[in-house]
Design a protein that fits this description.
Blueprint: H1 3-9, E1 15-18, H2 29-43, H3 56-59, E2 78-81, H4 82-88, E3 104-107, E4 114-116, H5 138-152, H6 166-173, H7 203-219, E5 221-225, E6 228-233, H8 242-250
Antiparallel strand pairs: 1-2, 3-4, 5-6
């Protein structure tokens, strides 16, 4: 094995002690010997095959669930990188992940390895899109990840669920989940407290900003000149919201 290549690849791979065992069967001793010779000819110089005398019974245990350290047989192991081991097993490769921060998302279909990923590491915005056909399990996956992230990471997860898929999640989480259905008939009080003393000494200013932004989203953006509110640019249709339209027309609004 090339030592220079090993030193370069060891950052992403591991070294494995490998011994290959080939099971040859036949209805008679002569048939076993003939098939053993055929296997030896098949591999040629690529793999040196040898039937070790006196160890056949122990080597047969390699094809059972008995751990190899409990098998008393003649070993001739060689060192091999992970990619080589993967090729022997018909897979792409083995993968040794160095990163386990963030929640567990599943098994990597390419490397057959556990996948951990922190969406918000380093202050990043964890924008994610889950794609799949109808019935492929998108909602189920999001339900599982919501419960897993809340339980293992301690994150507070907020859904905006337009399709009302959160009913099953609420039922599964029990007291750990709160669902608030919102429709055009739902009444919201923009003066409700959403900040408190736990949010720091300036929580009152944050609460005021929240109320102002909520009113602006409903009534419109205030047009101010010289510190005085001159009018409003409505963001709703007054014909559909008569009370809002009337308030705008009468300028019966006060901003603090």
């Amino acid at each position: 094995m090339d030592a220079e290549r090993v030193m370069r690849e060891i950052r992403t791979q591991s070294l494995h002690q490998v011994q290959i065992a080939i099971l040859v069967e036949g209805s008679s001793a002569d048939e076993v010997r003939a098939r053993r010779a055929a296997v030896r000819d098949l591999f040629g110089g690529t793999l040196r095959c040898e039937a070790v005398r006196g160890s056949q019974a122990e080597l047969l245990k390699l094809f059972t669930t008995i751990p190899s350290h409990r098998i008393d047989a003649a070993w001739g192991r060689v060192s091999m990188l992970s990619h080589g081991v993967g090729c022997l097993f018909g897979m792409t490769s083995f993968y040794r992940s160095r990163h386990t921060d963030g929640p567990f998302w599943g098994i990597d279909a390419y490397r057959h390895a556990p996948l951990f990923y922190h969406l918000f590491a380093g202050g990043k915005a964890g924008h994610t899109v889950v794609l799949g056909q109808t019935g492929s399990g998108k909602t189920f996956f999001l339900n599982v990840m919501t419960m897993r992230i809340a339980a293992t990471m301690g994150w507070r997860v907020i859904w905006i669920d337009s399709e009302n898929n959160g009913v099953r999640l609420e039922r599964a989480c029990g007291d750990g989940c709160r669902r608030y259905p919102i429709d055009p008939a739902t009444r919201l009080n923009v003066l409700d407290l959403v900040y408190g003393e736990d949010d720091g000494p300036n929580w009152r200013y944050s609460q005021i900003e929240y109320v102002i932004s909520s009113l602006a989203m409903l009534f419109g953006t205030p047009d101010a000149s010289g510190g005085e509110v001159r009018g409003l640019t409505p963001v709703v249709d007054p014909t559909r919201h008569a009370c809002v339209g009337q308030a705008i027309a009468q300028k019966n609004l006060h901003f603090l």
